Amino acid sequence: MFDPTSVGLVTPQKVRFDEPLTLKCGRALAGYELAYETYGELNAERSNAVLVCHALSGSHHVAGYHSDDRKSAGWWENMVGPGKPIDTRRFFVVGVNNLGGCHGSTGPASINPETGKPYGASFPIVTVEDWVASQARFADYLGIEQWAAVVGGSLGGMQALQWAIDFPTRIRHAIAIAAAPKLTAQNIAFNDVARQAILTDPDFHHGDFYSHGVVPRWGLRLARMLGHITYLSDDSMAEKFGRELRAGDYTFGWDIEFEIESYLRYQGDKFASHFDANTYLLMTKALDYFDPAYPHGGDLSAAFRPARAAFLVISFSSDWRFAPGRSRDIVKALLDNKLDVTYAEIRSAHGHDSFLMEDPYYHALMRAYMENIDIGGGR
Description:
Number of strands: 14
Radius of gyration: 21 Å
Strand content: 15-25%
């Protein structure tokens, strides 16, 4: 039996779009599929739909379980469900796997109809704007003219912001959690080191590893280990692992000695067993390219000029990858446009990954904000 606050067993679905999608890079996908899941019921006015956008390694599997195995829980199981902050008794919640992903939507491992082989590295570069455009088509498919809210953490939060800019009349609330208006040079540097680990793996084969029957596991492993370090805070790593030694004393060798080494290698191996290397490259590039102020000469306030939504912006005190100051940059730009903005900085020791944790203050804030969203037919 599942907890009554879980949506329980869920079945992923797919939808195909045959209308070409022109991407920001200048290339086009002639057709594509999106994998998705929904939870709750769409009301008669179709005014209670909430889109949850996923971060780099997430997917459409936001809540519930794919099997009786508790390890099959959705990535935001603690946030979405009956009675949870995003309450599926009130909202119709939708999760979509981004284009270029590796969990069911068309991506590098999909068959290119022009060649009959996997796209591999030939899959076009996709951006946050492209994902939002594909999600708008998906909303049309579902018959949803306007989202009650678009919600996301990290890269998902960037999608929520882009929705407010590109489709201002189709979103009533944008909720950006642990996000940033663009990556810093340091963040781009982290992403490039991770990509280099994959690109230089002998099993990568220029992105055509599918036809060689191998996986660039070593590169993916290193990329994930590096990424994982940046998702945690120094305090949380110290509290969880400290300098604890597996053997109780130094071994003066190169095998695992410290518990943190064991943890990172485990996370790297686990990730490499199910994630696609080409997708990792695409997702990090989408992060690098996100910069809505770029077409406006760096003026973030000008970028948000079309927006009409109300905003909730949340940051976490220990998030050094997307520090609270980056969220305050977003808030300032929104206020410059006299938009309705709620901002909160949550004290948390969990670093960037705080948006995935069940922090009581964070969840109470989300619950209060979601409860105040009008689903009675518009705002």
